[in-house]
Automatic annotation (TrEMBL):
<keyword id="KW-0229">DNA integration</keyword>
<dbReference type="GO" id="GO:0003677">
    <property type="term" value="F:DNA binding"/>
</dbReference>
<dbReference type="GO" id="GO:0015074">
    <property type="term" value="P:DNA integration"/>
</dbReference>
<dbReference type="InterPro" id="IPR002104">
    <property type="entry name" value="Integrase_catalytic"/>
</dbReference>
<dbReference type="InterPro" id="IPR013762">
    <property type="entry name" value="Integrase-like_cat_sf"/>
</dbReference>
<protein>
    <submittedName>
        <fullName>Site-specific integrase</fullName>
    </submittedName>
</protein>
<dbReference type="InterPro" id="IPR010998">
    <property type="entry name" value="Integrase_recombinase_N"/>
</dbReference>
<dbReference type="InterPro" id="IPR044068">
    <property type="entry name" value="CB"/>
</dbReference>
<dbReference type="InterPro" id="IPR050090">
    <property type="entry name" value="Tyrosine_recombinase_XerCD"/>
</dbReference>
<feature type="domain" description="Tyr recombinase">
    <location>
        <begin position="156"/>
        <end position="333"/>
    </location>
</feature>
<feature type="domain" description="Core-binding (CB)">
    <location>
        <begin position="58"/>
        <end position="136"/>
    </location>
</feature>
<dbReference type="Pfam" id="PF00589">
    <property type="entry name" value="Phage_integrase"/>
</dbReference>
<comment type="similarity">
    <text>Belongs to the 'phage' integrase family.</text>
</comment>
<dbReference type="GO" id="GO:0006310">
    <property type="term" value="P:DNA recombination"/>
</dbReference>
<keyword id="KW-0238">DNA-binding</keyword>
<dbReference type="InterPro" id="IPR011010">
    <property type="entry name" value="DNA_brk_join_enz"/>
</dbReference>
<keyword id="KW-0233">DNA recombination</keyword>
Length: 362
C-alpha cells in the first residue's frame, strides 16, 4: 500500500512479507508511478531473499553509517570523515554492488580533476576499499569487493635536520616554541602530545613522562624516558601554568601577565622562523624524524627506537635504518681482498708491441 505522511513530501510504502514482517519505507519520490515501481521491485527483492536465499542489496549510506560507528576509535577518524563527505554526492544513491572498478576509476578521475595529489586520491580510494572489504569479509553484505586502482606515489625521503640547523632554528623561535622544539628533539613526541602535555603526566624525580592510550596514535600508552635535555626544559616551565606544561605569555586588560596553553605549535611564528633560519620544506612533524635519525646515527638499535617512539609497526622504523650502515661494516669486510691487486707497472699490450715482438722472434 502506498501512502503519504503528513511530515513528508514523498510516497511511503507499507506491506507485510509472507513470513509476517511488516515493511514501512520511504520510496524517496513524489511521483506516484515511480513509487509504485519501487514498491513492486522491493516486494520482488524481499521475496527472492526469503525464497531463494539471495542477500539483500545494501546501499552505500547504510554501509557508511555502520563503518563510522565501528571505527570511531581510529586515530585517522576525522580524516576519514572528510573523505566520506567528499564521496557522499558520488555514491549516496548506489548499492554496494554498483560500486565496481569503473565507478572507482571515475572517482579517481574526479579527485584528480580537483588538483589533488596522488597520495590524497589514494587515501580517498582507501576509505572506499576499507568499507567494501568490511562489507565483504565481516558483515557479509557483499560477495566480493573490487580491487582499487591506486595511483603511484613517489618515495619520500626522510626529512631531518643536522644539529647546527636545529640550533639555528631554535635561535629564531620565541621562548615557548624554542623549548617545545628542544623537548621534541629530546623525546620524539608528536606535536599534539607536546602541546597537550600536562604536569600530571610528568614525574621529574623519576625522569619519566607518559602518554595515555587515548592520546597516542597507536592507542597504546607510551612511557617517555626524560634525558637531561628534556628535564632542563621542564624545569624552566615549572610554575608558569597550573595544568599544562607549555604555555605562551600574554597580557590581560589590566596589563597583568597571563600564561595560556599552546594549542598549535606549527603555526605562523614557526613558519616565519623557518624562513629566517633558511630551512625549507620542514614540518613540525619532521622534528620527530630528526629525533629518530639522531638516535639511529648514535647507535640506538631499531627495536629500541620502536619502543621509544611508540610505533606499533616495525616497518615504520626501518625507514631510518639507512642512516646508520655502520653495523653492516663487518659483513662488507668478508669479501675484502677477493680480487688481486694489479701492479702499477703493468700495461696493456698494444698492436705495436705485438708487431715488435713478432719482428724480434723472426
Amino acid at each position: 500500500m502506498l501512502y503519504r505522511r503528513s511530515n513528508s513530501r514523498h510516497w511511503w510504502v507499507r506491506f507485510t512479507t509472507p513470513d509476517g514482517k511488516e515493511v514501512r519505507r520511504s520510496t524517496g519520490t513524489q511521483d506516484k508511478k515511480a513509487a509504485e515501481e519501487y514498491e513492486a521491485k522491493l516486494k520482488q527483492a524481499l521475496w527472492r531473499q526469503e525464497r531463494m536465499g539471495e542477500k539483500p542489496q545494501r546501499g552505500w549510506p547504510e554501509a557508511v553509517v555502520r563503518w563510522v560507528e565501528e571505527t570511531a576509535h581510529k586515530a585517522s577518524h576525522d580524516d576519514d570523515l572528510a573523505h566520506l563527505r567528499w564521496l557522499d554526492p558520488h555514491l549516496k544513491t548506489l548499492t554496494l554492488e554498483q560500486i565496481d572498478r569503473d565507478r572507482l576509476r571515475a572517482l579517481r578521475s574526479a579527485r584528480q580533476a580537483e588538483g589533488m595529489s596522488n597520495a590524497t586520491v589514494n587515501r580517498t580510494l582507501a576509505v572506499v576499499h576499507a568499507i567494501l572489504r568490511r562489507a565483504e569479509r565481516v558483515w557479509e553484505w557483499l560477495e566480493r569487493a573490487p580491487t582499487i586502482p591506486l595511483l603511484p606515489e613517489p618515495k619520500q625521503r626522510v626529512r631531518w635536520l643536522r644539529r647546527e640547523e636545529a640550533e639555528r632554528l631554535i635561535g629564531e623561535l620565541p621562548e615557548h616554541l624554542a623549548d617545545m622544539v628542544r623537548f621534541s628533539l629530546a623525546t620524539g613526541l608528536r606535536e599534539a602530545n607536546v602541546t597537550g602535555l600536562e604536569w600530571s603526566q610528568v614525574d621529574l624525580e623519576r625522569r619519566v613522562a607518559w602518554i595515555h592510550p587515548d592520546q597516542a596514535k597507536a592507542k597504546r600508552a607510551i612511557g617517555v624516558p626524560l634525558n637531561s635535555d628534556a628535564v632542563l626544559v621542564l624545569r624552566r616551565w615549572e610554575g608558569r601554568h597550573t595544568e599544562r606544561v607549555f604555555a605562551y605569555p600574554r597580557r590581560d586588560a589590566n596589563g597583568d601577565l597571563l600564561w595560556s596553553p599552546v594549542s598549535k605549535a606549527g603555526g605562523r611564528a614557526w613558519r616565519k622562523a623557518l624562513k629566517r633560519a633558511g630551512i625549507e620544506q620542514f614540518r613540525w612533524h619532521d622534528l620527530r624524524h630528526t629525533w629518530a635519525s639522531w638516535h639511529v646515527q648514535s647507535g640506538t638499535p631499531l627495536h629500541v627506537l620502536q619502543e621509544l617512539g611508540g610505533w606499533s609497526d616495525f616497518a615504520m622504523v626501518r625507514k631510518y635504518a639507512h642512516l646508520a650502515p655502520e653495523h653492516l661494516a663487518e659483513h662488507a669486510a668478508r669479501i675484502e681482498s677477493g680480487i688481486r691487486s694489479v701492479p702499477h707497472s703493468f700495461r696493456h699490450t698494444t698492436s705495436a708491441d705485438k708487431k715488435k715482438a713478432a719482428t724480434h722472434d723472426a
